[in-house]
């Protein structure tokens, strides 16, 4: 079955900086397409404000009720979505680039993604709801007032703190006995998955073969693939592509390197192959991505 890639809508009930989709605030639920859906380029924080929704999230059954917070991670699959007529929610969409800009995992190791996948939902207290409402209102104010001095830096700072608060609250569920058993029973797997993630990030997009990482970890490619699917519901190739895209995006956004220089730096066979790789995984050519980012800077 085909998978529909979700993108943040435009128009009423949305707030963004210029025309960029890097960071989008959305009020009011407008439905989810039928079938299998994924947020290809975004993580989404969803806070249910009323009603009930139920869906399958990477083969987990999730039910959202009032005051529930749910973290929809990029590349994850949602299907069989149903909701009550009065269901509504507030969402914050943040792109892969935005996440790396603020470095929300600074105080975490990469294997912390495992319990996040196992426990993507938490019920918020009234105090939590008030706190997140304050963050949302601050973000709305600064994103709507681009004339303010340092508004972009202030916005990134608020988002960074907001996401760290989300991470902190989601960690509460890690202490649930069921979650603890799932996590600790695979301690060796956790360490190996964490080591793979560290190596993938350290390679900075220059190593893209699963067998090379398997050799560094002294395991077979088949075992590494099985391990990551079991612990993170992800194939090694998906995470390799994730870090490769991060490396490319950083060079396109923050350097003046030519396409050939980037291709050489990241050990692509040639600039043409590099361009096809990036478009296949991002939906844009490298030049289109760079132009989009430069245009958003001009608007600031």
Layout of SSEs?
Layout: E1 3-5, E2 14-16, E3 23-27, E4 36-38, E5 42-50, E6 53-57, E7 60-64, E8 68-72, E9 77-83, E10 88-95, H1 96-102, H2 113-118, E11 121-123, H3 126-144, H4 151-170, H5 177-184, H6 187-202, H7 210-216, H8 221-232, H9 236-254, H10 259-265, H11 271-282, H12 286-299
Parallel strand pairs: 1-4
Antiparallel strand pairs: 2-3, 3-10, 4-9, 5-8, 5-10, 6-7, 6-9, 8-11
Helix pairs in contact: 1-4, 3-4, 6-8, 7-8, 9-12, 10-11
Descriptive notes:
- The chain is of the alpha+beta class and 300 residues long.
- It is 49% helix and 19% strand.
- It has 12 helices and 11 strands.
- The chain has helices at residues 96-102, 113-118, 126-144, 151-170, 177-184, 187-202, 210-216, 221-232, 236-254, 259-265, 271-282, 286-299, and strands at residues 3-5, 14-16, 23-27, 36-38, 42-50, 53-57, 60-64, 68-72, 77-83, 88-95, 121-123.
- Strands 2-3-10-5-8-11 form a 6-stranded antiparallel sheet.
- Helix 9 packs across helix 12 and helix 10 (259-265) packs across helix 11.
- It is globular.
- 25% of the residues are buried.
Report the end-to-end length measured between terminal Cα atoms.
Answer: 41 Å
Mean pLDDT: 83
Structural class assignment: alpha+beta
Arrangement of strands in the largest sheet: 2-3-10-5-8-11
Order of helices and strands, N to C?
EEEEEEEEEEHHEHHHHHHHHHH
Into which percentage range does the β-strand content fall? Answer: 15-25%
The number of helical elements comes to: 12
* Shape category: globular
Radius of gyration: 20 Å
**Biggest β-sheet strands, sense, barrel:** 6 strands, antiparallel
Per DSSP E runs of 2 or more residues, the count of β-strands stands at 11
State the helicity in percent bands.
Answer: 40-55%
Low-confidence stretches: 103-111, 176-185
